[in-house]
Amino acid sequence: MTIPHSCEDHRADAALLDVLTGPNPQAAKAAFVRRDAALDPLLIAAAAASGPHVTRNHYHHDFFPGVMLPRAEAAWDWTKYTGEDSSKSARKRLAYVSRQAPRKQRQSIAEEGKENDQPRETEHSKPTDNLPPPSKKRRPSLVAPSSSTNPDAKPRHKAQSISETTQSTTSPVEVKCMARTRIPTPHGPAFLHIYHNNRDSKEHLAIVIDPAQLSNPSDPPPLAPPIRSRSLDAVWSENETEMDRIVRGAYVGRLSSTSQRASNASSHLSHSNLLQDVIPSPLIRIHSECFTGETVGSMRCDCGEQLDEAIRQISLPIILPPNSQTAQGTVIPGRGVVIYLRQEGRGIGLLSKIRAYNLQDMGHDTVTANLMLGHKADERGYEIAGAILRDIGLSANSSSPTSEGVRVLTNNPDKVEALAKEGIQVVERVPMIPRSWQHRQAIADANGGVDNAHIYVAHEEEEGATGKTMGATLIGGNAVHGEDLDRYLRTKVLRMGHMLPLWMEESVPVY
Q1: What would the DSSP string read from start to end of 491-507?
Q2: Claim: this prediction has a pTM higher than 0.85
Q3: Mean pLDDT over all residues of the chain?
Q4: What are the angstrom distances between the C-alpha of 161 and each of 111, 116, 156?
């Protein structure tokens, strides 16, 4: 049976259908009304006053003169500003002059590097055998834009400038010995050489130990070839005098008020060649600067002890083996060199090194501390050391006929590999055992009845009234010791591959 529907029912059904199938009504969002007008007149005035001559560094708010006059009524209500009186003289407007270079030029300088990062210019007045002619460079900030000299020149791209910078950093290292002088040390005389280079603005050093160079003219020539700088003995200028050469250190013998003999380019050849095959190779060490360990006497590391121990071992007399040309027990002075590189904290600098010490106190080791500061574990380079060794003739690839191989005082295999890449012939690696570890070994062997006369430790009869053994650093001839040192050395052995035996207890943590 069909139930009839009225028209009102059909309207109600249609309305219900519209409600069910229609879009959802959007609820009105509650929002705060803007306190300022939709178009702020001050903002419009600022936009109108902006232009290429106005920057955020040189902007001067002067849209309405009343703003600059606190007593004027328009200073606090700009709507009451009625304009300036034409009868009054115009207020002097400020002129802004920028003293910095254009932004495009400053960006190009930033891409090429900072001013202090530019290599030091080493001018060689006269080319020598081992020094290529220098190429003078101008600071990028002083170079005029290319458009002013050549209108057809195209602007350099960023990739091009980066490639040019890479080529300059990969150019051959050039070093020049700027000065040389004699310095007496607790272990004997030495010659201090100051070097400049084309890679950085630092003054790297070479401590040459070769007492045979202090001989008198009447003495027979030394048996071993002298360790002298080729760039120092070279002629720097046609107008230089003998006194100029002597003042910079290019002299032979011992300098005094009665003996002043300038050297020449062949001074490194003045020696006897009879025992060249019998004399051992010079002993060297590549040492990096350590202010805390050498100057302050910090016992967090053994750098000060290593520097003193290197100079001591190099200064030891050399006993030549007997043969047909030498008598039994022929002794010659010790000879070698310590290359002192100015790369503090394994290349990260003194500031980062001090921060790394704080991280080490918090429980991290020296490698992890460097990584946490954004540095590598070891950022040192040895290209300059290789160039200095070539300059003093201690390189197998040197042009000098007296070139020799070297024996290296180090526990770091990376140094041996780096010297080999620089063309330095390493004939032997001589380990550097910390003195505190040597003392432990001597005690352990003494308890076992083993003779340790060959191990050097500070004896009481060698110490003065203060109980300190004389040496080249603040530590002197004494031994660095302590838990901080043991943790540091343990990290170098386990994480950096240094070739040292571990004398600590296994329970000591690595910090």
Answers
A1: HHHHHH-------S-TT
A2: no
A3: 75
A4: 7, 18, 7
